[in-house]
Amino acid sequence: MINTKEYRFEVSAAGRVNLIGEHVDYCGGQVLPCALSLKCTVYARPNGTDYINLAWTDLPDQISLDIRNLNGYRALKHAKYQAGCAYLWQTSGHEVKGCDLLIDCKVPFGSGLSSSAAIEVSTLAAYALVAGERPDPVEIAKIAQRAEQEYAGVNCGIMDQYASACGKAGQAMLLNCKTLACQYIPVQTGEYSLVIINTNKPHSLVESKYNERRQETEFALSVLKRKLPIDCLADVRPFELLEYRGGLPLTIYRRAKHVVDECYRVQSATAVMQKGDMKRFGELLTESHRSLAELYEVTGKELDSLAHAAWDHYACAGARMTGAGFGGCTVNLVKTDAVEDFKQKVCRRYKQETGYDATCYDVEIGDGLKYLEL
Ligand code: GLA
Asked: Taking the C-alpha atoms of 287, 197, 43 and 73 in order, what is their torsion angle to the nearest 10 degrees?
């Protein structure tokens, strides 16, 4: 049991599910994530020393970080996130004060539901509060992204950290990743429910493959920039990509085609959700998965097996992988009265095909960053 009375602050940030707009955030595209009610909560108190003492509710490790040497902890398995956040917070001009942190992360690790963003955002807000600062969610999201890129070594976009910090209960965020303009869109799914299913396949190669995809899209941009007045790949329109495809190696063209088409799917999906056309919304989810499987090649056997089983179920309007891919979760749009049957049949078939037991979560769209003084 956590004795919260021993701490001064309780800070929580959310995991996220991305409804659509996958692998486009780092290309300046729009995404449509929601914060989940699955949270990472950090309990914090100042300790008057030069150390950040870390403990976890579900890990035996206890680690102390010297705040005069925060650059030196990149090799740590779990604590690299807290160290990276402290280092980036300090080097961006904020004060890091000695504190004790207890980390209680309920976002499953390696699930593609952004446990690392939830850890980073809640930890940064805890550092701010301990030093007497009022945390600004957008600034925290940006510094959390830099901690992931510069300390943990994943060249990620802004989507996860932004959703984790700025989410609102019941709302999706239509986030323009070029300008950070964000429009909140109520998630009204009518007679359908959103179901998340975890492949439970341990992530492998996700970081190197992720960075590779990012380089491929940067290469596509550098070629297309010579022909088109664009700042990012999301600015390219489908007919322009077709016109200049001859200048791109085939693999690079396929990556760019995914990005350009997915940006259009985000616009359509937002419009049809606002109109309440959930059948079409589901079809767009399925089209997104196909593109991620065939053009972007970030799904793999397990995610494809879960998606195919979902598509074959009578009550499913559509399904896709969510997050970086290579494992992690699918998001499924399913008639509410058939959700139990859906979960049972999809998980059974997935187990037969892959040998893994899947885990289902019902989506509850929660708030992003929240904190209170205890
Ligand atoms: C990971 C990254 C995000 C985003 C997704 C794919 O979750 O952290 O920035 O690129 O993959 O859409």
From this structure: -70
